[in-house]
Design a protein that fits this description.
Elements lengths: L1 H27 L11 H23 L10 H23 L6 H29 L1
Helix pairs in contact: 1-2, 2-3, 3-4
Length: 131
């Protein structure tokens, strides 16, 4: 449960860093339009910090985590790869460069989605066993 809480804290800090980077980078470059940098904060805040805070509550009630297996490695990879691609795409938009990162962006979201479903199945199996 401590690992889940630590992950939540780390993602909360990363959300704040992402928000500050978005504000300062766009201000420094005089950019006023929409950029994907604006959603880095919300991705880390909701999919990182809030998600792991909710897992702390579920773990406290149902004890579904097996310490031998790192269930959330795929989730961490998917979330961080998604945010990295958001930052890359956002920087490209702000600097008006012509680079395509669509393939990696889709793969990152796919990894994140699959790992989220696996986590939900794990919770579902644990809850079903407890009744």
């Amino acid at each position: 449960m401590k690992r889940l809480m630590n992950a939540s804290i780390v993602y909360g800090v990363l959300a704040l860093v992402g928000g500050v980077f978005y504000r300062e980078f766009t201000k420094l470059n005089g950019f006023t339009g929409f950029t994907t940098l604006s959603v880095v904060y919300t991705h880390y805040l909701i999919l990182g910090m809030v998600f792991f805070l909710l897992l702390v509550l579920v773990e406290k009630n149902y004890s579904f985590i097996n310490d031998k297996v790192r269930k959330y490695l795929l989730y961490h990879i998917g979330l961080n790869l998604t945010v990295v691609m958001l930052v890359v795409r956002g920087v490209v938009q702000v600097l008006s460069l012509d680079v395509s990162s669509v393939v990696l962006f889709g793969i990152a979201h796919l990894i994140l989605g699959i790992s989220m479903v696996l986590v939900l199945f794990s919770i579902g199996n644990c809850i079903k066993d407890s009744f």
